[in-house]
Amino acid sequence: MDREASEVTSNFTAVIQRDGEWWVGWIAEVPGVNTQGYTREELVANLRSALQEALEMNRAEALAATKGEYEEMTLQV
Predict the structure, then answer these.
(1) Which residues of 15-36 are buried (b: 16+ CB within 10 A; e: fewer)?
(2) In 1-77, beta strands by DSSP E
(3) CA separation (Å) from 48 to 2, 13, 33, 44, 54?
(4) Whole-angstrom Cα distance, residue 65 to residue 60?
(5) Confidence of residue 77 (pLDDT cuts 50, 70, 90)
(6) Which residues contact 30 (CB under 8 A, 6 or more apart)?
(7) DSSP assignment of 29-40
């Protein structure tokens, strides 16, 4: 299946807060996706990057676990 044709835009919840001189944040729906930034804007950019990297890594791991033919489908919740 063509990866670009199967990509879906999803929304995620960023939980952010100021912690002293830093901004810190987490993606609520994806455990382990958290980061920090010196400014709010830097934090948001870092969260986007960390989320994209985590999703790509999870996708690669899922595909690596397949054996033989497989099917991909889009799920909405």
Answers:
(1) eeeeeeeebbbbbeeeeebebe
(2) 14-19, 22-27, 34-37
(3) 23, 11, 10, 6, 10
(4) 9
(5) confident
(6) 12, 51, 54, 55
(7) TSTT-EEEESSH
| C-alpha span between 19 and 39 (Å, rounded) | 11
Residue type, 6: S
Domain 11-61 falls in which CATH fold?
Double Stranded RNA Binding Domain (3.30.160)
- Give the span between the Cα atoms of 43 and 33, in whole angstroms: 12
4-61: pLDDT as tens digits: 545 667 899 999 999 999 999 999 999 999 999 999 999 999 999 999 999 999 999 9
Q: Is the pLDDT of residue 75 over 80?
A: yes
Residue 3 φ/ψ region, left for φ over 0, alpha for ψ in the -120 to 50 degree band, beta for the rest: alpha
Structure tokens belonging to residue 41: 């804007």
